[in-house]
Amino acid sequence: MKTITHKANTRGHANHGWLNSHHTFSFANYQDPERMNFGALRVLNDDTVSGGNGFGAHPHQNMEIISIPLEGDLQHMDNMGNSTVIKEGDVQIMSAGTGITHSEYNKNKEIAVKFLQIWMFPNKENVSPRYDQISTASIAKENEFYQILSPNKDDSGVWAHQDAWFHLGSFDKDTTTNYTFKKEGNGLYVFLLEGEIEVENQKLEKRDGFGIWDTNSVAFTTFSGSKVLLMEVPMNF
Hints:
By secondary structure, the chain is mainly beta. It contains no helices and 22 strands.
């Protein structure tokens, strides 16, 4: 078993006024050769965008891009004709493939929107660009992990061009549970959204990250009410 811990206060940070962003991995002006990625997981940005502001139209190529809103409403538009809003409880994915242009704005003028922006290397390049979003309302469960992303089109959640599985879970205090890997050789990156947990004897607090690989399962114990994001990804990147 191998592990790596990224405490919340060691992340890169950029405050542009309208955008306050924390970077778990190297991004933009934050560059650390020791923190370029975790396997196929390339970007994990914890973004807060002030009212009425956002990211103007910009391109992406050959990347799987996942957005998970935590608070507020995020307005999405792209050159495929999609115009929609994602909010807490939704999951959005874009397969950039041969190229996609999109914008993301805070739909509200008075309150901030908070969301995770996640980039993942695909397992095939130059696919046709694709957009999808779901609500997790019908699949969310209490005190267990529920799947929000997989490689399978007919599976629960959205699907990606990668042998990756993402899960969310909200847990009461003093809950114990386990996660079993879906594919041999994958690693698991744990990102704690809220609360306090212990993962294989490593205590994590809000916004800490923890990577683990060369194992088949992972044990969790919660010390307080907690919300956890799991990202299982291939490690050969």
